[in-house]
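Researcher: Quick one. two chains, 245 residues in total.
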Amino acid sequence: MFADMNTGVQYPTASTYSTSRGGGVPASYMNPIGRSLKNGAFCHEGATGVFNTSGSQRVSATAFNMNRCGSGNYSSQGVVWLYNGNTYNAYFTFRSPEVFDGQFDGGGGSF
Amino acid sequence: MKRQRNIITASTACLSLVIGSAVGFSVTTATAENLESRDTSTQRVKKEDFPKNQAGESYGSIANVATAEDEPDLVWTYGDGGVMGYVKKLDLNSRYAQTLEEAQKMSKEKSQTKVLKLYGEDGKIVIGTKTLGD
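Model:
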């Protein structure tokens, strides 16, 4: 799995991609989440209701407005909840490199 | 005599080159190791690495954890209005499916906004809110 953050758009996105090495998996076994952090602190996460379809090997989710915590250094992290036959466990990617976002300079809070 | 001097000069030059290469190599290696140790983004943090409050709850940043199990009990975050505080890991993860039935239900429903309580470091005093939603 891997994650990326796109700050070159109006509403910066955090995308998470999850691929099964063992071929297709049953529906709803993979749940990728996009997450952003500002200066190392958790800021936001989204795309919570995205699951893989039946037999698919790959699923991706894109969350929007990930820079909603004001001006600062943002990074993204992918989270994937995987079903083990009993419950879901979450696994995280490494964080992306930090990028400065001054779009909400002087602002802050929830948008 | 002149030939002997040339041989000595050439030998000295070769020796210098060998020593220089060795020193240069070791310096390069040391630099690479230093850079690696400074790159905190590749160092995974375990739950036991976090400090704990008086109630025994771990607290801190989730920036370098690898699994939900390693997340601290209180997750450092930006709350609504830019207030910094902590949300409970249980509250945060309650947004996600724990069973296949919940997953199927979630995938059909439109994601809803959820407002979590924002706590201080003690995990007791509520200092604000944290709104989450797609």
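Residues 104-111 of chain A have pLDDT under 50 and may be disordered.
Researcher: Thanks, that's what I needed.
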